[in-house]
Amino acid sequence: MQNSGNYHKLDGVGIPEKLQVIDGAPKKLFYVGKDPNDILSEPSVAMVGTRKPTPYGKEVTHNIASELAKLGVVIVSGLALGVDTIAHRACLEAKGKTIAVLPCGPDKVYPATHREDAKRIVQQGSTLLTEYPPDTPPLRQNFIARNRLVSGLGDVVIVTEAAEKSGTLHTANFALNQSKTVMAVPGQINSALSKGTNNLIKAGAIPITSVDDIIFELGLSKTQNKLFEPQNPQEKVVIDLLTQGVNDGHELLIKSGLQTAEFNETLTLLEINGQIKPMGSNVWTLG
């Protein structure tokens, strides 16, 4: 390992083992912050998705990243707009560890608007990582090449929201070539930003209907039960009704006073967050 300024260089056996075995393995890496090898002693997931997520995509991404970070899972992403940065921020808020893989040199941040996020990542003991030397600008070809490192660093690759032709699908393809498990969050069939994830599921990706699905895939178990605090009035009304013993889906919809689409979205988010679970025949119970 070499040090110059505030970045470090890794090569040879210093490169994380997960990246030594992928196609197009990097010959050198540069990082700022914590040595990625120290962080990668824990299970890791790569979280990717659209740069323009819907409110549903934002909440799903935040909830998944937060819950996994609380269990010690490392969150890997690309510090891009949208899903990437939401995942990094949720991880840091949960006091977890994250690795941001950059498409430029270690002396730069892209996009520049995320400089504060990059600073926080380093300050909280996490890592900015790149295969590009100092002074390298974020060239167009670097973005796709960067994705193979994002998928390579994750034990599992998670796509939370993506359009039909999203660049995120490059990461999923790299993951498949690397024999990594790909998981995706299902979305509404009439949402353009769910076509990519829904198509991944049709092609064999594992659907995520609860964070427990990811925990199971990683071979982990929840080590503690945390008191749940509803994130919005919609979640509160559904949780309150279930606590009162109302568990039929149709009755929940009517008594909640929510619109059907809003109600279904709330159920999905609560299920993904592990707070409720289906019992079959449109019957629900607290998780």
Textual characterization of the structure:
The protein is α/β, with parallel strands linked by helices. It folds into two domains: 216 residues, Rossmann fold (3-Layer(aba) Sandwich); 54 residues, Orthogonal Bundle (Arc Repressor Mutant, subunit A). 40% of the residues lie in helices and 17% in strands. It contains twelve helices and twelve strands. A ten-stranded mixed sheet has the order 1-2-3-7-6-5-4-8-9-10, sandwiched between helices. Strand 4, helix 3 and strand 5 form a beta-alpha-beta unit. Helix 3 packs parallel to helix 4. It is elongated and about 60 Å long. The protein starts with a strand and ends with a strand. About 2% of the residues have low confidence.
Task: Draw up the topology in text.
Layout (H helix, E strand, L loop, with lengths): L1 E3 L2 E5 L5 H4 L7 E6 L2 H4 L4 E5 L6 H16 L3 E4 L5 H11 L4 E4 L13 H9 L3 E4 L9 H14 L2 E4 L8 H10 L3 E4 L10 H8 L3 E2 L3 H7 L15 H11 L5 H8 L3 H13 L3 E5 L2 E4 L1
Parallel strand pairs: 4-5, 4-8, 5-6, 6-7, 8-9, 9-10
Antiparallel strand pairs: 1-2, 2-3, 3-7, 11-12
Helix pairs in contact: 3-4, 6-7
